[in-house]
Amino acid sequence: MAKVGYIFKKEPYEDFNEDKNWMLQFGCVNVVEEQKEHEKLRPKWKQLLSSLERGDELVVTKFSNAVRGSRELASLIELCRIKVVRIISVHDKIDTKNILFPDTKVSDVIEMFGSLPEECAALRNASSHIVQLQQDIIVSKKWNITNAEERAKMIVDMYKNGYSISEIHAISGFNSRSSVFRILNKYGVKLNRGRFSGPLGKRKNKKDNQENEENS
């Protein structure tokens, strides 16, 4: 059994250090920090959920900070029910073992559920706005790229920070997406998003497929 915390680092986040210290003092062996650039994918959150074992304790600052809506909250509750994982939401003052927050009432829980969609939407909008501002800055830097090495570094950095291949291609200056994949493969970047791990190869036409079947 282990205690583990999760914090999505929204901006602004004035209480970040206070929330993290609360988790550490509570006994969390690790506090997972999700960067604002990954608000949509939440790779660390997904990895954390998959690593939970029976009897573990999951601590979040607030449900709206961890999940992206009521559906994800329902899935989280079901997952923790099956794995017998205790959930603690610090600012919602909810403890599924009814130990930490004895004064929390049913009406408080219902209030949390009712306000969750609005709070999640506000967080997503704020994160999207910040990411867009960062993208605008990167776009402006495009015109300052003077050599291939700088462009390659920009492409690698953007992918590692959660940008899609389409977004990278749009400002890379390359004519095709395959050039973006070539740069990522050259620098050993593990591709972990989308349906494919690289550019599609030349597609065979139906005639070639029929000839292969006849020869096999």
Question: Which helices and strands occur, and which strands form pairs?
Answer:
Layout: E1 3-8, H1 16-26, E2 30-34, H2 43-51, E3 57-60, H3 63-66, H4 70-83, E4 86-89, E5 94-95, H5 106-142, H6 148-160, H7 165-172, H8 177-186, H9 206-215
Parallel strand pairs: 1-2, 1-3, 3-4
Antiparallel strand pairs: 4-5
Notes on the structure:
The mean pLDDT is 82. The protein folds into two domains: 3-114, Rossmann fold (3-Layer(aba) Sandwich); 145-200, Arc Repressor Mutant, subunit A, CATH 1.10.10. The protein contains nine helices and five strands; from the N terminus they run E-H-E-H-E-H-H-E-E-H-H-H-H-H. The chain has 216 residues and is an alpha/beta fold. The N and C termini lie far apart (55 Å). Strands 2-1-3-4-5 form a five-stranded mixed sheet, sandwiched between helices. The radius of gyration is 22 Å and the shape is elongated. A hairpin with a 4-residue loop joins strand 4 and strand 5 (94-95). The protein has helices spanning 16-26, 43-51, 63-66, 70-83, 106-142, 148-160, 165-172, 177-186, 206-215; strands spanning 3-8, 30-34, 57-60, 86-89, 94-95. This is Resolvase/invertase-type recombinase catalytic domain-containing protein. Residues 3-128 form the Resolvase/invertase-type recombinase catalytic domain. GO terms for molecular function: DNA binding; DNA strand exchange activity.
Helix content: 40-55%
Largest sheet: 5 strands, mixed
CATH superfamily of the largest domain: Resolvase, N-terminal catalytic domain
Given as residue ranges, the uncertain stretches (5+ residues, pLDDT < 50) are: none
Give the count of helical stretches: 9
* Elements, N to C (H/E): EHEHEHHEEHHHHH
Measured distance between first and last alpha carbons: 55 Å
Envelope shape:
elongated
Our Rg estimate from Cα atoms comes to 22 Å
Structural class: alpha/beta
Mean pLDDT: 82
What's the CATH architecture name of the largest domain?
3-Layer(aba) Sandwich
Extended strand count: 5
Q: What would the CATH topology of the largest domain be?
A: Rossmann fold
Pfam families: Resolvase (PF00239)
Organism: Phocaeicola coprophilus DSM 18228 = JCM 13818
GO molecular function: DNA binding; DNA strand exchange activity
Domain Resolvase/invertase-type recombinase catalytic: 3-128
